[in-house]
């Protein structure tokens, strides 16, 4: 831990420092009260079940995410459990808050018919989630959002690469290896620049462009050292693996497509001037999405077996092809307008013939996701 981190940790134990920190977080808009957050959710259409539940005493265990630990009356603006909670309340479904991190998590889980946990994306939480969801899903046979199969590839680019390659999906040409000599052989014959990524990282964190073999070897030497390479996670190092992708020079945007059941939403993302990374840049455009891109996103979701999956694509004008960057079961969501056409919010509905029809409406994707789970498993 750095000296700065130690000083901050000590300072935040002092009441006047904590109060000042909270005020700063409120002014920046990063935190909000639960009541304010819930009120903000009402800008979206209500999602209602059209059939009754099979079980009378059906109960959901809902895990709280993104709680502001310095004052319990606040939560982070991007907290997601209230979106799931809104669906449960509107449909009069019984639920309890479930602390999956406590020592009694296994005993408590037995009373729930459905467990909802919008996990954080850091490596520590993902390790906890994979271990516990394996037990809940595979051993106790609980219905979980996410399932173990869904969490297996979440925030793990290496696992996602194995998945794309096994299914012959058109991902960006990618090289993954845990063997140093194999990596050096690749660097001797590849074309530069190449893109290096951490297996876990979002919003373009841990993404670097290697312009030469010399640059790449500096990274390789650290990765395959005894300590590994320091990452932006203070507790995590890149150790004994590389993840390299070909640089698609003629790609001018990312296209994120969110597929839920037979619905699709999405938007375009553009990099800042002089940069190649669109994710995290904050430059969005919402407009029509080509059918070929929608088809690919649905193909990935169906193979993945996910209820909701966001797939990020690049388009190469030279090759006339969409390439998969990565997929994620959870994404950052600030608005119920994840797709707009000519300023009108809505979603694409995929017909039985594979055609796409635009339907108007503002929806939280978390509620649409729960609708699919209930339709598939719990309705009469």
Automatic annotation (TrEMBL):
Annotated ATP-grasp domain residues? 161-356
Q: What is the superkingdom listed in this entry's lineage?
A: Bacteria
GO MF annotation, one: ligase activity, forming carbon-nitrogen bonds
Alphabetically ordered keywords of this record: ATP-binding, Nucleotide-binding
Which is a Gene Ontology cellular component entry for this protein?
cytoplasm
Keyword field contains Ribosomal protein: no
InterPro entries in UniProt: ATP-grasp (IPR011761), ATP-grasp_RimK-type (IPR013651), ATP_grasp_subdomain_1 (IPR013815)
UniProt cross-references to Pfam families, sorted A to Z: RimK
Q: PANTHER family annotated for this entry?
A: BETA-CITRYLGLUTAMATE SYNTHASE B-RELATED, RIBOSOMAL PROTEIN S6 MODIFICATION PROTEIN
Q: What is this protein called?
A: Carbamoyl phosphate synthase-like protein
């Amino acid at each position: 831990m750095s000296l700065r981190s130690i000083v901050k940790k000590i300072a935040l134990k002092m009441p006047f420092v904590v109060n000042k920190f909270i005020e700063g977080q409120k002014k920046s808009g990063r935190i909000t009260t639960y009541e304010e957050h819930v009120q903000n959710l009402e800008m979206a259409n209500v999602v209602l079940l059209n059939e009754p539940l099979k079980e009378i005493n059906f109960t959901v265990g809902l895990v709280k995410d993104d709680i502001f630990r310095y004052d319990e009356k606040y939560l982070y603006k991007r907290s997601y459990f209230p979106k799931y909670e809104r669906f449960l309340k509107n449909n009069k479904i019984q639920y309890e808050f479930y602390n999956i991190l406590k020592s009694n998590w296994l005993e408590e889980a037995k009373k729930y018919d459905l467990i909802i946990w919008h996990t954080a994306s850091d490596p520590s939480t993902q390790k906890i989630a994979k271990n516990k969801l394996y037990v809940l899903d595979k051993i106790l046979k609980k219905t979980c959002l996410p399932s173990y199969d869904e969490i297996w590839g979440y925030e793990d680019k290496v696992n996602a690469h194995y998945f794309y390659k096994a299914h012959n999906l058109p991902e960006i040409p990618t090289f993954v290896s845990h063997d140093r000599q194999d990596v050096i052989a690749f660097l001797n014959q590849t074309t530069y620049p190449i893109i290096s990524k951490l297996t876990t990282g979002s919003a373009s964190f841990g993404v670097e462009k290697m312009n030469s073999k010399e640059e790449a070897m500096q990274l390789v030497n650290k990765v395959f050292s005894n300590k590994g390479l320091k990452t932006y996670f203070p507790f995590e190092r890149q150790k004994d693996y590389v993840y390299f992708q070909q640089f698609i020079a003629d790609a001018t945007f990312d296209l994120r497509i969110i597929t839920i059941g037979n619905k699709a939403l999405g938007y375009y993302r553009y990099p800042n001037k002089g940069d190649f990374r669109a994710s995290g840049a904050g430059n969005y455009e919402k407009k029509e999405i080509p059918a070929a891109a929608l088809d690919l996103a649905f193909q990935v979701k169906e193979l993945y077996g996910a209820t909701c999956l966001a797939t990020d694509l690049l388009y190469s004008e030279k090759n006339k092809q969409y390439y998969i960057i990565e997929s994620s079961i959870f994404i950052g969501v600030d608005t119920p307008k994840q797709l707009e056409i000519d300023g009108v919010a809505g979603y694409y509905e995929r017909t039985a013939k594979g055609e796409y029809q635009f339907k108007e409406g503002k929806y939280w994707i978390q509620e649409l996701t729960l609708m699919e789970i209930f339709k598939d498993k719990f309705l009469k």
